[in-house]
Design goal:
338 residues, mainly alpha, Helicase, Ruva Protein, domain 3, Cyclin A, domain 1
């Protein structure tokens, strides 16, 4: 039947795509920085052009292994993690209560998440992370709103040990200003989303302003969680494939893309309410629009977008230099894809 034939074709494509990823991941064992940089560039290209296989099942480790390579997480230590876990609850005043208040409601309605990630695992991971931060004061990282959701996505995709090291690398190296007490990265991200909206869709931007919908009123939660506050979870992880391939800063483009996708509905609404009616994530459409947006971003604005998760606007100070083989490139570098 036609349906069976299409299913067979799709299955064969997934097999071939999985083989491409396995080939690249096996090369990731090379120690040469040049080899690693080329391998990551190839992974970026593959993530953007073809995505990951759609037949990913529970227990499949492919996405987690791809994320580890893209985040440059090469060494993990079960012994060091156990030491942190054995320290128990964080002793920072009030933080443990905040963690417990957030963890019980994390992806509460998602059955797949609830089956895969026990609440105690998330609590354990967040407490261990706080102990890790106590040992390294360079970033001033602490538990902030939205951190539970970000950490939970890592636990949903990979085993607990890998999730801890990938989450820690992400929070302390790639986006430390999102996880300091002032959540400056998120606030700067909102301002940058405002600037991107002016460039990408000035009509929509002016319409929202005329309706009293300033970007800060609807964008902060989406910046804080790197779009993980909007379901469905299986689309969040696909969007994060893109974020880890090109850097957490591209979430700003994805955020604006989500609004542009429903621009006609917004323009037609007498009183648009984006704080409640944010559309469900459609990762493929969001990424397609984001790549189109980035082509029109001026270089000076792009530089601010790239740097905002880890560099203060009013200081030359950088927190924990990014991995030396990390190079921020525009997704549109792989031109003509969409």
């Amino acid at each position: 039947s036609p349906g069976a034939l299409m299913g067979s074709i799709a299955s064969q494509k997934n097999i071939e795509l999985r083989a491409k990823y396995e080939s690249l991941l096996s090369k990731g064992k090379e120690t040469s920085q040049a080899d690693l940089a080329k391998n990551i560039m190839d992974l970026r290209r593959l993530v953007l052009i073809e995505g990951l296989p759609t037949d990913t099942l529970e227990g499949d480790t492919l996405r987690g292994r791809v994320w580890k390579v893209l985040l440059r997480v090469r060494d993990v230590s079960a012994d060091d993690y156990i030491i942190l876990v054995n320290k128990g609850a964080t002793e920072h005043p009030g933080l443990y209560d905040k963690i417990r208040n957030d963890t019980f409601r994390t992806f509460k309605t998602n059955i797949s998440y609830q089956k895969r990630v026990p609440e105690n695992t998330l609590i354990r991971q967040l407490n261990a992370f706080m102990h890790l931060c106590d040992e390294d004061k360079r970033n001033n990282t602490t538990y902030v709103q939205g951190m539970n959701v970000v950490c939970a996505v890592f636990l949903y995709v990979m085993n607990e040990l890998d999730a801890f090291y990938c989450f820690s690398k992400f929070a302390n190296h790639y986006a430390p200003l999102y996880f300091n007490p002032q959540i400056e990265g998120a606030h700067d991200g909102v301002e940058l989303a405002d600037e991107v909206m002016k460039v990408a869709d000035p009509e929509l931007y002016l319409h929202l302003i005329s309706k009293g919908m300033k970007t800060e009123t609807w964008a902060l939660a989406h910046c804080l969680s790197f779009s993980a506050c909007t379901p469905p979870l299986d689309e969040i992880v696909k969007l994060w494939d893109f974020l880890f391939a090109f850097g957490p800063h591209v979430n700003i483009l994805c955020l604006v893309a989500q609004i542009m996708i429903i621009r006609e509905e917004i323009l037609a609404a007498e009183r648009p309410n984006l704080t409640r009616n944010f559309p469900p994530l459609d990762s493929h459409t969001i990424i397609t629009v984001a790549v189109q947006i980035v082509r029109n971003i001026p270089d000076d604005l792009w530089k601010k977008i790239v740097q905002h998760p880890w560099k203060y606007k009013k200081s030359a100070k950088k927190f924990n230099t990014l991995p030396r083989n990390f190079k921020a490139i525009k997704p549109s570098k792989f031109g003509g894809l969409f």
